[in-house]
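Q: Given only this backbone (117 positions), what sequence would you predict?
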């Protein structure tokens, strides 16, 4: 499974960006799709997850501002980011996990989001 993330860039505080991650092959059997981020000088952290039945989970620091969604027909997971803050500056990575037989845990290459004051 290969993932290609896009949509990062430079935005002013209070602005919005939408990240996309296209997954090679069908995402129908993928259990969890998610977005993680790694701020400069810090460890990678979970941002948002979405299950194969559409259940979502958000880190407290993005609740109410970010929204994760998936389009199975387009093999894509999205992260809509609103009300961005400078502390949201990070490299954002998409991740997919399949459990059970033929399980895998795959990462995209990352896309940089920079939020200026």
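A: Predicted residues:
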């Amino acid at each position: 499974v290969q993932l290609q993330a896009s949509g990062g860039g430079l935005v002013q505080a209070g602005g919005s960006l939408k990240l996309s991650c296209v997954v090679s092959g069908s995402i129908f059997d993928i259990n969890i799709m998610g977005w993680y981020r790694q701020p400069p000088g810090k460890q990678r952290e979970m941002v948002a997850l979405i299950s194969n039945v559409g259940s979502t989970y958000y880190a407290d620091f993005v609740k109410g501002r970010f929204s994760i969604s998936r389009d199975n027909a387009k093999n894509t997971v999205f992260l809509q980011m609103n009300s961005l803050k400078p502390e949201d500056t990070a490299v954002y990575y998409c991740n997919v996990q399949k459990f059970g037989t033929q399980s895998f845990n795959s990462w995209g290459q990352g896309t940089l989001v920079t939020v200026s004051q």
